[in-house]
TrEMBL record:
Name this protein carries in UniProt: cyclic-guanylate-specific phosphodiesterase
Residue intervals of the EAL domain: 24-278
Species assigned in the record: Litorilituus lipolyticus
Length: 282
């Protein structure tokens, strides 16, 4: 299966390499034109304020359903879309869809609903990115402070000197920047020093074993203290159990995201969720 691609052991090297190459080829072939065939959609996963349990926003996550390949997970197709260049169009689609949707949710439920969108390295090499973000915010009448862009170290690793100036332009607009998958990279700390982040998302791998791994708890505590000292908000990713949630609340983690609250769901399902949560105010 696709998860084994790149993790071959010598004994079945050839057969598996072949399989991976074929899968890759099929994805490359199918991703071409998939946007025009309406195969992509944007799902949303809620972010919850851990101190009061209220929904404060959501992360937009791209979904691809292809007639030949079925549901292809983003962990598989995003990297390929990066290489083919399709990510530029896909990224625009996600931003447009999610801001359009957010404008509706603002009107209907919650004026300060925060939408988070993932950006990948190639999008940062698009000289029109900053203008596109600004235009799309304005077209949908969404305030910049309600948009958060999640990037991983990969964006910063690209090392181009204009990354810093792009990040500065984005934050000067009032858009927030989040460092995604924090703790999995090589030099996350030096990036926090250099770039204007507002939010840190602790990677799911630290949350998984909160109950049993003392080291993970120590690291989580340290990340939260450090973040708060730097005036950064902390989101914990991948919260699946009540126990994990309680621990994170105890150590003052600001926000939580994970299957415990909700899986990523369609815009329609998200609207229903907001409806049942906010009907009291209507
Ligand atoms: P990410 O940005 O770190 O997103 C979080 C991933 O964790 C999502 O996977 C989400 O479904 C999953 N997740 C959330 N809560 C839980 C949980 O409690 N347990 C477990 N096991 N998983 C949980 P997803 O949607 O498959 O996306 C994977 C990655 O693909 C994302 O990681 C992001 O890096 C990338 N991606 C997704 N959509 C986009 C997009 O629109 N643009 C870009 N550039 N990348 C995207
Ligand atoms: Mg993310
Ligand atoms: Mg993440
Ligand atoms: Mg990730």
């Amino acid at each position: 299966d696709a998860k084994n691609c790149g993790r071959n052991t010598f004994s079945y090297y050839t057969a598996q390499m072949n399989q991976c190459a074929q899968r890759r080829l099929a994805i490359e072939e199918q991703i071409h034109g998939a946007l025009n065939r309406n195969e992509f959609s944007v799902f949303y996963q809620v972010k919850t304020n851990l101190s009061n349990g209220k929904i404060m926003g959501a992360e937009a996550l791209l979904r691809w359903n292809n007639p030949a390949l079925g549901n292809v997970p983003p962990d598989e197709f995003i990297a390929i879309a990066e290489q083919t260049g399709n990510i530029i169009q896909l990224g625009k689609f996600v931003l447009e869809q999610s801001l359009k949707q957010t404008a509706l949710w603002h009107k209907e439920y919650q004026q300060d609903f925060q939408i988070a969108v993932n950006l990948s390295p190639r999008q940062f090499r698009d000289p029109q990115l900053v203008q596109f973000i600004d235009d799309t915010l304005k077209a949908n009448n969404v305030h910049a402070s309600n948009l958060e862009l999640e990037i991983t170290e990969g964006v910063l690793l690209s090392g181009y000197n204009y990354v810093e100036s792009m990040l500065n332009s984005i934050t000067q607009m009032g858009v927030k920047m989040a460092m995604d998958d924090f703790g999995t990279g090589y030099s996350s700390l030096s990036y926090l020093r250099t770039y204007p982040f507002d939010v840190i998302k602790i990677d799911r791998s630290f949350i998984n074993e909160i109950a049993t791994a003392e080291k993970d708890r120590a690291l989580i505590n340290a990340i939260i203290s450090m973040s708060h000292a730097l005036n950064l908000k902390v989101v914990a990713e991948g919260i699946e159990t009540e126990e994990q949630c309680q621990y994170l609340r105890k150590v003052n983690c600001d926000l939580g995201q994970g299957y415990l609250f909700s899986k990523p769901i369609s815009a329609q399902a998200m609207t229903k969720l907001l409806d049942s949560t906010f009907q009291i105010n209507k």
